[in-house]
Specification:
Helix content is 45%, strand content 25%. It is built from 10 helices and 12 strands. It starts with a helix and ends in a 5-residue tail after the last strand. Strands 2-3-1-6-7 form a 5-stranded mixed sheet, sandwiched between helices. Strands 8, 9, 10, 11 and 12 form a 5-stranded mixed sheet that branches. A two-stranded antiparallel sheet has the order 4-5. A hairpin with a 2-residue loop joins strand 2 and strand 3. It is α/β, with parallel strands linked by helices.
């Protein structure tokens, strides 16, 4: 659909824009209120976006709590300002909490946008660049952000990497490796360091230095940290089945420490898996 719209706009010498919205802190809604309230929240967000944009605009759910809006047929001279104004409208529409079955649910969203043909000439690249701007907006917390406004534009390979990294999480390509830690006092294995790896379908096993810096730049690191916490919790339960004390050391990014919701997220993982806080030791990663 995006490709068809761009082809039509090219024939008329018009511009087009893609706006990507990601609902902030949505995972906490599922964890605290349950998946049914989470689903109702997504329906409420979709209804708000539809009411604001009208049914003649193309609105899509990219997956999870991420939505996209296509704005085709924009006058070339005013396209950038129209895109920005639309993004600000959506930002304000979602800023107010929704009341869902007596629960006040925050539907605030991080918003990124990209303009065709200024920011990209291909449909897939346009969507990925809007998504990259969204992740940077999520990290900066400064409201909607256009791709062209980023201080360090994402190179083509990194834009592709963002889409691949999302796919890695969705399709189970990430791996948890455990490096045993032996106690010098008693000589037995008393714990392990949890290490993340990416089994890329085309490039083989990737080490953290090949994707973690990019994840930190875009804000995707928080999703990877949640994945690591869940996988480490499952590993701890399996390894501790013998009853012997066992501690897993987890590496956190400096960007994780700037997340005001890190402690509640960590607590939710412990409660969900029934783990004691002593199961984990949190620290910073070693230099590569």
């Amino acid at each position: 659909m995006v490709r068809a719209a761009l082809a039509a706009d090219a024939a008329e010498q018009l511009a087009a824009a893609v706006i990507v919205l990601d609902i902030d802190r949505f995972r906490l809604v599922n964890e605290a209120l349950g998946y049914r309230i989470g689903d109702l929240t997504l329906q409420r967000v979709a209804a708000r976006l539809t009411d604001e944009m009208g049914r003649d605009r193309v609105l899509a759910r990219l997956g999870g709590n991420t939505f996209a809006v296509l704005l085709p047929g924009l006058p070339a001279r005013t396209a950038a300002s129209l895109m920005q104004a639309t993004a600000m409208r959506l930002h304000h529409v979602l800023a107010d909490a929704s009341t869902i079955e007596s629960h006040a649910v925050d539907t605030h969203a991080s918003i990124g946008m990209a303009l065709w043909p200024r920011d990209a000439t291909e449909a897939d690249t346009l969507v990925h660049r809007a998504e990259a701007a969204m992740y940077l907006a999520k990290r900066r917390r400064e409201g909607p952000l256009a791709y062209a406004e980023t201080t360090h534009p994402t190179p083509a390979r990194s834009v592709s990497l963002l889409g691949e990294l999302r796919q890695a999480v969705d399709e189970g390509q990430l791996r948890l490796h455990l490096q045993p830690q032996r106690s010098l006092r008693c000589g037995r294995v008393a714990g392990a360091e949890a290490l993340i790896r990416w089994q890329h379908p085309g490039r083989g096993l990737l080490l953290p230095r090949e994707f973690i810096p990019f994840a930190e730049q875009t804000g995707f690191i928080r999703l990877l940290t949640l994945w690591m916490l869940d996988e480490a919790a499952r590993a701890w339960k399996s390894l501790s089945a013998t009853g012997e004390p066992f501690v897993l050391s987890l590496n956190l990014s400096a960007h994780d420490l700037q997340d005001a919701e890190l402690a509640p997220k960590f607590s939710a993982v412990l409660q969900r898996h029934g783990l004691p806080a002593q199961a984990f030791c949190l620290g910073s990663p070693k230099a590569p």
